[in-house]
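Hello,

Our lab assistant flagged a job as stuck in the queue for most of the afternoon. It eventually completed. Since we weren't sure the result was trustworthy after the delay, we are filing this so someone can double-check. Below is the sequence as submitted and the structure that was eventually returned. Let us know if re-running is recommended.
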Amino acid sequence: MAEVEVVVAHHECATLRVGELFLKIDTDQARADVEVEAMSLAPIPTPEVLWRKPPVLALAALPGRALGRLGEPSTASPEAWAAAGAAVRRVHDAPLPPWPGRSPGDFAADLDRECEWLVANSVLPADLVTRNREIAEAALRPWTPVFIHGDLQIAHVFTDGDEITGVLDWTEAARGDALFDLATLTLGHEEHLGDVIDGYGADVDLDVIRAWWSTRSLLGIRWLVEHGFDPAAPGCEIDVLKSGM
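-- returned structure --
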């Protein structure tokens, strides 16, 4: 009998793996609705939906293995990273999803709130927060919305050799900034940014990519701490913020 593996579990949802089956348990049905519809719209491989009985969504496992993990060196080839960039470009070139995403103003308000919390609770030094808030400002410019994945961590991109076999976890899919996805994919793995851009096949503003690295890290730390994760682990969000100093 296959063992039950807890892939991720926190206060909002949990994902279990049983053999070649993933069970996502999420009481937020609106978020689950977005995931199912986004996967149906995405022009790249996504997990097959086997069945859905709220609050549980059953997905078939993707073949291969994750492109990497934040805080760990990636063993994937440059060609696999380039293939990931090409897959992202196909998503961005697809028709927009019918629901909106966050605006630059939304991000600015969220950043101000999180930066205040980080300093008030002595989570990070004030100068580190202030400097990265300044860097983040470059991302908060008007952009032409595209279909974005919205949470394109490398752990969500699966490869087999140099090929992308699929992308999972589409709960944050929406209309948004293309460079947000590229930054999320390369967060903590700056050495592979060139490979991703080569595969993406378009000019990319590196200052905006760096700005999204700071933005995502500043916005994520409180959530990670409150859900039992460690943003101070080597190579993770706090190290990303320090690298911008």
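-- support follow-up --
The delay was a queue issue, not a problem with the job. The result is valid. The chain has eight helices and ten strands. The domain at 62-243 is CATH 3.90.1200.10 (Aminoglycoside 3'-phosphotransferase; Chain: A, domain 2).
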